[in-house]
Design goal:
Residues 281-354 form the Aminomethyltransferase C-terminal domain. Pfam families: GCV_T (PF01571), GCV_T_C (PF08669). By secondary structure, the chain is an alpha+beta fold. 21% of the residues lie in helices and 33% in strands.
Length: 356
């Protein structure tokens, strides 16, 4: 397990650690309820430096990646970010990525444990293009701010007013004496901001944000609470809710797909599925009551298998266990009651995101 760069700092605050994709992450800081409340009512700071980063350079970097992902890259403005899927020739996912387009390179933010897989996938198709792939996890790392106090914390840390960032909008800044890139990330929470930090400067940036956030009620937030927020927001995670047989449209990733960009690996399959107008199964929400359900549990309607569970959390919003899972299109109507194949109870289909 690759240790966190800031392990010593988190350990000093009583953090508990876990493995995520072969990399160390903070599981929690001993007060999950307080972390959750901070993310909703104040501000929370998450160390996401366990994520992997790939850098692409060369004259043809944008056109090459453009042909490898479902999203627009060539016409993506410099200084912008975008979320994309990588699929094989059969339209099934290889990985997902958040792409940051800079003047001299492209940075790909990847789920932990997928960096080698993504590099091998891209390298397989890199033949005559002037593009080079570089492992950059040792160069860059991510911190994440969540909660309505995020803008106030950044304003205090930057020493001036901070205009909130729209989703995927970026801004260069200096924090803790380090040049950083701020990227709006409202997928889980409407005020979220990702801070791209040179890995060597993680400690001063973390301390600068923590100090600026103290008057705003900032709390550090662990991976377990981040997962709770993710599931409540209905956002799938590759490796948990998406695997190498998932077609992006099944996972509600329409926003990761450009239909005007032209050819890319797997484009014909995605286009056919879109033209057909439906997928045989889709990711949806599930209400579980008090049933303690494991990911992978089959869902049945009568004697027929109609899906399976992928992520399970206990939701403060719903006051019960909730889940993400794939369900056959004939059983997707909210309120549809399904049976858990392990015999622990029933699951009721619910719209995403989960709201009160």
């Amino acid at each position: 397990m690759e240790p966190l760069s800031l392990h010593f700092l988190h350990e000093a605050t009583g953090a508990r650690f876990m493995d995520v994709g072969g990399r160390e992450a903070v599981a929690g800081y001993g007060n999950g309820e307080g972390e959750y409340r901070a993310a909703h009512e104040a501000v929370a700071l998450h160390d996401a430096s366990y994520r992997e980063i790939l850098r692409i350079t060369g004259e043809d970097r944008a056109s090459f990646l453009h042909g490898m992902v479902t999203q627009e890259v060539k016409n993506l403005p410099v200084g912008s970010a975008a979320y994309a899927a990588m699929v094989n020739a059969k339209g099934a996912m290889v990985a997902d990525a958040r792409i940051l387009k800079r003047e001299a390179d492209l940075l790909l933010d990847l789920e932990p444990g997928t960096g080698t897989k993504v590099r091998e996938f891209l390298d397989k198709y890199l033949i005559s293009e002037d593009a080079e792939l570089h492992e950059a996890t040792g160069e860059w790392a991510l911190l994440r701010l969540l909660g309505p106090g995020s803008a106030g914390v950044l304003a205090a840390a930057l020493g001036g007013a901070f205009e909130p960032l729209a989703h995927q909008a970026t801004r260069a800044a200096s924090l803790g004496g380090q040049d950083v890139i701020l990227v709006g990330n409202t997928a889980l929470e409407s005020h979220g901001v990702d801070v791209w930090v040179p890995r060597a400067g993680l400690e001063p940036v973390w301390r600068a944000l923590a100090e600026a956030g103290a008057p705003h009620g900032l709390k550090p937030l662990g991976f377990e609470t981040l997962e709770l927020l993710r599931v409540e927001a209905g956002v799938p995670r590759y490796g948990q809710d998406m695997v190498d047989t998932t077609i992006p449209l099944e996972a509600n990733l329409a926003s990761a797909i450009s239909y005007n960009k032209g050819c890319y690996i797997g484009q014909e399959v995605i286009a056919r599925a879109t033209f057909r107008g439906h997928m045989n199964r889709k990711l949806t929400g599930l209400l579980l009551g008090d049933a303690d359900v494991a990911p992978g549990t089959e869902l049945r309607r009568g004697e027929k298998k109609v899906g399976w569970v992928t992520s399970v959390v206990r939701s403060p919003v719903k006051g019960q266990r909730v889940a993400l899972g794939y369900v056959h299109r004939d059983s997707l109507e909210p309120g549809t009651e399904l049976t858990l194949a392990d015999g622990t109870g029933t699951a009721k289909v619910a719209a995403l995101p989960f709201t009160a």
